Amino acid sequence: MRSLIVVLFLAAGLGFLSPAQAQDVAGQSPVRVDSVQAEFTQEKHLPILVRPIISKGTFVFQAPASLRWEYLSPVHSVLLMDDGRPRKFIERNDQFVEEQGMGMDSMAIVLQEITGWLDGHISDTPTFKAKVQEGGLIVLTPKEAALARIISRIELRLAGRSGLMESVTLYEGPDSLTRLIFSHGVLNEKIPPATFMKP
Amino acid sequence: MQRLGEKTILRGTLKSVLAFVFLLLLAACSALQPVHLPDLTALDAVDDSQAGQLLQRCRNNFVTGNWQFVHSIAFKRADGGGATVIGVTVLDGQKLHCALMTVEGLVLFEAELAQEKLTVSRALPPFDKPEFARGLIRDVQAIFLPPAAEEPKTGRLVGGELVCRYQADNGQITDLLVDDDGSRMNIYDPDLNRSRSIVAGSPISVAAERVPETLELTASGLSAYTLTMTLISADKI
């Protein structure tokens, strides 16, 4: 379960990488990110699906450790982390209900990974081995076999030099993948603290 | 004197606690009280056309051909715990394929049932127990496939509701009640106690077939739970 939660949060955290940080993998200087906001469209591809499942939502991050990861459709859910304490809410009958369990306590561990990336230390992660390829592509492969059984690799594609990541693709198997495509990214704008406290 | 007073208070408190415990036990027992198979009065010869229409409505309650459904599924245990996942179900006549994933897209469970052989290709905790796979497939079969039984009997329950009653070789009995707003299926184990009920609501037409937008499965017994399913997409494939 810990591996599962690690994957979920890695996917979330990867969306916050700025090109400047990604360039750090290639040996250039990183730029400190204080906050990031972005919209995303998520495509879920599975061999059994005739068409991908499309989800839409928003990411908001505030350094050092506050996160709001919200899916607006098809299921309205909000994952909040403030001061390292993760909570997940699902909307049912026009009200948000907090969901317990599913290893929520383990999520705090992953926060270190995300904040490490935000400091520009992608290559230093204890969980993944990073490799820079042509065309602004970074490939992360799990170091631990337990995690590799759940996720085979993650591909990060940079959106030029001035925005967030263009996309993050998380491969679970040869034909099973989740792709997050980011848009409307905003860096280092002030975010109200309440954003991270309630759904 | 003071000691006597304490004893009286203690006795009174004890009585209240015992009464409370008794009420709790009573409530728990009534919740666990099995629901038995209701009596069925068969439709007689005068009702032949009505029986034919009823049989057709019962058949139409299940899609035919190859389909793919995507639902959001809220799983709730009797103790209040639970989680919300996205479920994919593919029916292709010969095989039944299902997958569960988190809202974030990570596949937690994937399995296929073909010729009564269940193959689990992925099962992450807490969905990695063999009994979970068997239970899930049983629920998926109950929701999407017609009961494995001969032609059902048609009749009326005590309250007057028209019902199709399917009896499987293993003794399991399924009562199906269909109306314009949806359907209700009650499944009874061979001891004739209700083990599952499935309420399908808000039917929509997809590829000229009737597909419910909402489904609620309630499993009875000691490990009671509820699955509340909301349709995200339905495709005839």
Order of helices and strands of chain A: HHEEEEEEHEEHEEE
What's the order of the H and E elements of chain B? HEHEEEEEHEEEEEEE
Strand order of the largest sheet of chain B: 1-7-8-9-10-11-12-13-2-3-4-5-6
Overall 3D shape of chain B: globular
| Head-to-tail CA distance between termini of chain A | 25 Å
The CATH class of the largest domain in chain B is identified as Mainly Beta
CATH topology of chain A: outer membrane lipoprotein receptor (LolB), chain A
Helix content of chain A: 10-25%
Categorize the overall geometry of chain A: globular
Helix content of chain B: 10-25%
Largest interface: A-B, 31 and 29 residues
Rounded average pLDDT of chain A: 77
Number of alpha- plus pi-helical segments of chain A: 4
Q: Any key phrases for this structure?
A:
heterodimer, A: 199 residues, alpha+beta, outer membrane lipoprotein receptor (LolB), chain A, 4 helices, 11 strands, 18% helix, 42% strand, B: 237 residues, 13-stranded antiparallel sheet, 25% helix, globular
